[in-house]
């Protein structure tokens, strides 16, 4: 079993993780007509907003309760109420996702009761808008936990409780935070090719996919899962959760509605993709379409072509737990070795399955210290300085990626995504490969030569 090494430093050096509120906000951005609302200071919100905008290169509707010194001391219910009413009046969102920050969490406010009182007091004014609370203090967890808490809260608050009549072709997909816009879109197309109807929650593929509304400015998210679809999740015949951190939302849905779930810890790789396609075939009662089988054949060929470039390579990865597992299993499956593994938090059970001797909970400073001798660094854009200092190429994954375009349109899942990932990494290896020189091919180079000043045994 993999050893999990706790963080021992008192300060982060080049931080690896992003905060829980940011992860929750990202999940709320996958709901149509939504606005995430940070309950905290303007600075907390501004920092998260900058990262989201730089990563997605899109306008992101993120608001704040703008807590000041007085509100922090006396309590923030008035700021919360005013912010919710302002958003309702100005933008009329379908959903307001409240994400708490460390500032208000440390004070110990009763947010659930505050929100309940606001809803009762302002029931007429807030009609038609769902308000969902995710308690996400900055001082614990990371983006993965924030995403999980937000999705769980959405299901618990909005989905109709109780068992309902099931639609035989309807399935619910709960994607992990680490799936890109392209991954989610590809999942939908794959499910639909079996004649099934997917409801994806959250669905970033239509809200942060780089499209712009035709003729008007939209102050909320302009795509994503509709609130009406979330309400009717209980009519699905199956739920598919992707990533260990999505087990909680899937269990909540099953508890409230009785919808069974299947958990896929990763969809990158032949084994996970085969299991996913087999499940879709079983639900639909139809064999895999010809285009799916063709993509599988292409992946098999890519595995044969690519494994020569991976064999014996040492990989250093720093990522959130589920993404760490996704990438580590991919690389070891191709014949590489995980020489360094760093993650953000040590609470996820998936870390015990990471194919590495040990996983260090830490930051990019830890990655830099452990990565000496590696052939490839794998982390987000903040790892570029370590890459330069170590002279090791960097493969950018996760969040944030702000110094490259199109990161959200890179496919990494199922047959096609795994094939593309094989080629992308192999090309990095080939680009970094040093061409042999005549000196390096000289068999006598660096060979110990006899000391001419020392007499030979014959001369003695």
Fold and architecture overview:
- This protein may play a role in the biosynthesis of the prosthetic group of nitrogenase (FeMo cofactor).
- This is Nitrogenase iron-molybdenum cofactor biosynthesis protein NifN.
- Pfam families: Oxidored_nitro.
- Residues 434-460 are annotated as: Disordered.
- Belongs to the NifD/NifK/NifE/NifN family.
- With 460 residues, the protein is an alpha/beta fold.
- The chain has three domains: 20-157, Nitrogenase molybdenum iron protein domain (Rossmann fold); 170-209 and 220-288, Nitrogenase molybdenum iron protein domain (Rossmann fold, 3-Layer(aba) Sandwich), CATH 3.40.50.1980; 296-433, Rossmann fold, CATH 3.40.50.
- Helices cover 42% and strands 14% of the residues.
- The protein has 17 helices and 14 strands.
- The strands form three sheets. A six-stranded parallel beta sheet has the order 1-12-11-10-13-14, with helices on both faces. It has a four-stranded parallel beta sheet with strand order 3-2-4-5, sandwiched between helices. A four-stranded parallel beta sheet has the order 7-6-8-9, sandwiched between helices.
- Helix 2 links the parallel strand 2 (34-39) and strand 3.
- The longest helix has 21 residues, at 290-310.
The largest sheet is: 6 strands, parallel
Q: What is the straight-line distance between the termini?
A: 63 Å
- Overall CATH class of the largest domain: Alpha Beta
Whole-angstrom Rg: 25 Å
User: How many distinct beta strands?
Assistant: 14
Q: Quick one: overall form?
A: globular
Q: Which residues sit in consecutive blocks of at least 5 with pLDDT less than 50?
A: none
Q: What is the helix content?
A: 40-55%
The number of helices is 17
Structural class category: alpha/beta
Q: Biggest sheet, strands in spatial order?
A: 1-12-11-10-13-14
Question: What is the CATH topology descriptor of the largest domain?
Answer: Rossmann fold
Q: Any idea how many domains?
A: 3
Content of β-strand: 5-15%
CATH architecture of the largest domain: 3-Layer(aba) Sandwich
CATH superfamily annotation of the largest domain: Nitrogenase molybdenum iron protein domain
Compute the average pLDDT: 91
